[in-house]
Design a protein that fits this description.
elongated
Length: 73
Amino acid sequence: MDVQELLYQMFMSNHRFTRPSDEARSRSVWTATARSKSKHMLYNVRKNARRVCQIPDPTLWRERTPTWMRRDY
């Protein structure tokens, strides 16, 4: 199971919908929100790494990876 599916299943374990169409819509909204939030989080990580390292080359920021992100990602 990929990470996105696992996170959505965790979300669904706390929420219930009365109509199947609501559940389908929730998946669409959840996916859009997750994409937006993760894009914003990664932008902040890059911005902070650039500020801390003070080096313009992004390949040299790798030692500044966030603690919450797995190394293989």
